[in-house]
Sequence to fold (1018 residues):
Amino acid sequence: MVAVAALLAVTLLGAIATFLVDDRYAAKFATAVSTIPLVGSVWMYYVYLTEYQGVGNALLSPDTVAFRQTIDWIELGGYTIQYSVGLDGVSMPLLALTGILTTLALVSSWTPIDERQSQFYGLMLLMEVSLIGVFSALDFFFWFVFWEGVLIPMYLLIGVWGGPRRKYAAIKFFVYTNVASLVMFVGFFTLVFSLGDSIATLGLPEITQALVAGEMGSLAGIAVADLKLLAFVLMFVGFAVKVPVFPLHTWLPDAHVEAPTPVSVMLAGVLLKMGTYALLRFNFTMLSDVATGSVLAIMPVAIAVIGVFSVIYGALLALAQRDLKRIVAYSSISSMGYVILGLVAFTPHGMGGATFQMISHGLISGLMFMAVGVIYNETHTRMVGDMSGLADRMPWTVGIFVSAAFGYMGLPLMSGFAAEVFIFLGSFGATDTLGTLAPVLTSIAMFGIVIVAGYLLWAMQRTLFGGYELETDYELDGAAFHDVAPLAVLLLLVILLGVAPDLSYGMIQEAVNPILEIGGGV
Amino acid sequence: MVQLPTWTALSPTLLLGLTAIVLLLVDSIDPDSSNNELLAGVAGLGSIAAAATSVWFIVAGTGLPAENGELISLFDDQLVVDQMALFFSFLVASVLTLVVVASYDYMADKARQAKYYSLTVMAATGMSLLGSANGLAVAFVALELASLPSYALVAILKTNKGSVEAALKYFLVGALSSGVFLYGISLVYGATGSLQFDAVAAALTDGVPAGILGIGVLMIVGGVAFKTASVPFHFWAPEAYEGAPAPISAFLSSASKAAGFVLAFRVFATALMGDAVLAVVDWVLVFQVLAIVTMFVGNFAAATQENVKRMLAYSSVGHAGYVLIGLAALTGGSSDAYVLGSGMMHLLVYGFMNTGAFLFIALVEYWDIGRTFEDYNGLATQAPLACAAMTVFLFSLAGLPIGGGFFSKFNLLMATVRSGTWFLGAALIVNSALSLYYYTRVVKAMWIEEPASGLEIERYPIGLYTAVLVAALVTVLLLPGFDAVSQTAETAASLL
Fold:
């Protein structure tokens, strides 16, 4: 199947073409281009739903997964590097999320982006190419090329089109994530080297299977168990920066606040998921024995504590903010903490819920950032104290904003509710990995929702309701149709997944259950 | 099919030599010629022909052993044409092509153009010949043929004081290290009674006079260190690269460095390999120390620069340290061919990305914008295409997977792992991470900083643009097409 290759090639060509298009037409042109990967990924999603039920996990049964293609690429240092792609129930929804959010983010750029447009839209599409690659590649090097390929467009998007402190934010983002990549790289190659001659390619499935088969040997006098632990910790730290979890999160608020709205949407909606996706693939699949504590017993609890702490800490930080965008940014840290908790629970609902939360949070946080962006476009302020009573002036935007916020708080029949219920179900009973602490940690994490409700209700009440007041010199009238339309689409998707979570949850379960079997969690 | 005479195997080098002579002829007929089209055209055609011939020969397997296991060797084994010689002929000729194309604009209104082109091609001839040299005497002659024109080229802009001073420094250090190198050769000759590499290797048995040989080998290391701009003879490099016209900086830091390394690869892997030598002086250990020190000196110095050209000059020293891994990880096991091959791959990729980066500097000098990071502010608003190319060069130099530099650095890392020299790999990783910092500063200046008021570019020189964009394209294409390079390099290295 050449579907993924076609997706990559068309998007890449579109990105290059966008760079050459005149500024006046770049926005519409790029949006038109982005509908190709959008339609393509949604079509693939549909094909997956209808034809690829029960194909399992991409790393554990690579030959059966969807849209699989392998071509030998390069001989490198004794390993064959392959063009190797394939989609399973974890990556398929994330790929569709990428397609959907990119197009919507491009539409939401029409209003705020008014300079160097062809470069902006070209970079956005270039980033989409890399994101498609990250979620579909099954060879380490092929994957790594895309993994790093996301950083450069992101760095420039924040650095060129960002707010007043954009230079600082861009450099901080770039340094944090690059150092993290390096740490992860070292950790991964600790595994590769210790596998010695038992692997001939750097295909992620092959490495996973060699690890599961216990092919690891000691390296430079270090025992296998210690090597595994070392690799696990290095990779965890590397990916945790991307997620981000406490205490590696400090780049995120800066990046979000300075980034223009569409870039924030991509950052929160998809880029953060790269971290949790990689955690799931590398740490929790390849090294599931370390993750479940069979090498170091304290490991799962330690990770769960980090996750729960991120939930509460992120929520408390959000509570202290005055800037709407910062509120949403910090609450992302909180939401991603749930993903960590779900993953480390290592139960069907925990892991499935964590993956579902990636999709759900991708939609909801994208929606929230877009809504804040629309408000900012009109009011030119994001400060809670500078405005009130917007509901009268921009009813549609406010209506969607309120709905999204309730989605964030976990209102039933919206996707956030399903995701969090799955995670809590999974982690509450995760006595195999978290022992007696499982219910305790879960209860603490649940308290995070209360705080979320607290700050969102407070912020909405101050800004959206009450008498109209605006402390900037702009006349406020409703937002343009093309600003509100992406919000409505996202809201519908959030509700759709909330009403029918099985649209994604079924395929997710089929992809994560095999992991639990090899890790002994089922 | 007609069997070509054996000497034609040397065609790439001969073509370069012929081109140099034609240019010299033009110079003697019309010494003040400023017929840029003719000069750059001749030089460009000659270098493209040389590069194309090298590729043809590599693909045709000219440098592979014949059925009787013999490589093509000429002049009583003083010259050898194997895949490595062709690999480096290609490298030198491609860099020369880029430099010549860029010089078409850069030298347009300068004096002594005919001399400039003929000296450049002459130096390239020497570098290409160095790749074929199979004896110490020939190697020295080729080395001087490459060096002497280089000294003059650095000072070709006679009225520029910085240029002249840099050239003087370059010349003095060069003369000293040539002397050291020559003295080393004579000591090795004294110990072995031979100059030809294989004969030297054969003569190196347990009975060799240890003291003479040891000092000789160390002195040869010194000569190599100068030519490759490695510690301890690196300090000419920043001055010379900064003072020289930027295309010449590109030429010296890419082609000349590669020539120095091919000399080192041949001398050490062919002539001086073996327990008898290593028991006297462990040059592998010496190179290990030099590699690590060179990496750190180059990268730390680069990180503190305010001048972009000087930063690139120091980063060039750092990259010499990376390539030195190709010698420092020769621990005698089965990994040796791979180790050497990795060094060669990095040199080739470096040849394109570093030449491109210096040619971008040439472009900026052409626009007369200034040399510091600040002067580059907002350049992308005026010249986005060239700045995108520069971004590719810089990130590829840093080892991000946007160009061939990623794979060549990874190969070096794998080489250290396979040969068990972990500490070299660790130094490589640390330094690559550090280098990202100062390369990013340029990217940040170009794309993110606000342009200074009045920054306006009116001319977009076609030659410089072509050279920069072609270099960028090759750098990017080396990522998917790295297999061709790595296979050739490994085969070439395994023949030594």
Summary: The interface with chain B takes residues 19, 73-78, 116, 119, 141, 144-145, 148-149, 151-152, 156, 159-160, 166-167, 170-171, 174-175, 178-179, 182, 186, 193, 220 of chain A (CB under 8 Å). The beta strands of chain A are 66-76, 79-87, 387-388, 469-470. Chain A has one domain: 3-519. The mean pLDDT of chain A is 89.
